[in-house]
């Protein structure tokens, strides 16, 4: 019995299965659907939050100018983020079944680039404006509290912003990047496979 098995030779002889285009297209369709749903939910939540903040401003009539500036900064942060985030709708909607694999790949790379800008630059600006706005907004109400409760309120608020920034944001970014990178890698593999077969 021959114990000298050449694993490299066996590996080379292995048949390569052709890429499953239908499965890949269904994953792309799922990615598009999830991304559009997330975009709609984000729009609804941020617009509703902005409307609620405007209602509070109108109904409670804050006295301090810092409160009004805080409200303006907070709403500006939300509207600015939505303005940039909604530009992704065009990219998601133009992904359809009539495109070639290389066109899918280019769309995904464009989406990845836009998402990176949104997740780095825009999200940083969003958090800076939102944090500043909330700190200014809360000043009027915390100034009426005792020092302990005023500090406690700011610590809780800044703690939540910190938790969101340092834990939730990177986790969500990593998940989004993995989803897009996985699709890009699969389309690149399909393109390589198809170019080899031509």
Automatic annotation (TrEMBL):
Keywords: Membrane, Transmembrane, Transmembrane helix. The chain crosses the membrane at residues 39-59, 65-84, 117-139, 145-168. This is Uncharacterized protein. It comes from Flavobacterium xueshanense.
């Amino acid at each position: 019995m021959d114990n000298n098995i050449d694993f490299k030779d066996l590996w080379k002889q292995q048949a390569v299965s052709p890429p499953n285009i239908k499965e890949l297209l269904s994953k792309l369709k799922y990615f598009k659907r999830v991304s559009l749903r997330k975009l709609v939910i984000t729009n609804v939540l941020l617009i509703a939050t902005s409307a609620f903040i405007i209602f509070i401003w109108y109904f409670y009539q804050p006295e301090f100018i810092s409160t009004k500036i805080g409200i303006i900064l907070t709403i500006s942060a939300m509207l600015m983020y939505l303005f940039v985030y909604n530009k992704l709708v065009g990219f998601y909607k133009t992904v359809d079944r009539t495109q070639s694999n290389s066109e899918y790949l280019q769309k995904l790379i464009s989406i990845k680039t836009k998402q990176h800008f949104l997740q780095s630059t825009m999200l940083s600006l969003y958090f800076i404006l939102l944090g500043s706005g909330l700190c200014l907004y809360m000043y009027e109400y915390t100034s009426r509290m005792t020092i302990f409760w005023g500090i406690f309120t700011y610590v809780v608020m800044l703690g939540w912003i910190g938790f969101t920034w340092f834990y939730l944001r990177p986790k969500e970014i990593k998940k989004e990047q993995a989803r897009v990178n996985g699709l890009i890698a699969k389309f690149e593999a399909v393109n390589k496979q198809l170019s080899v077969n031509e």
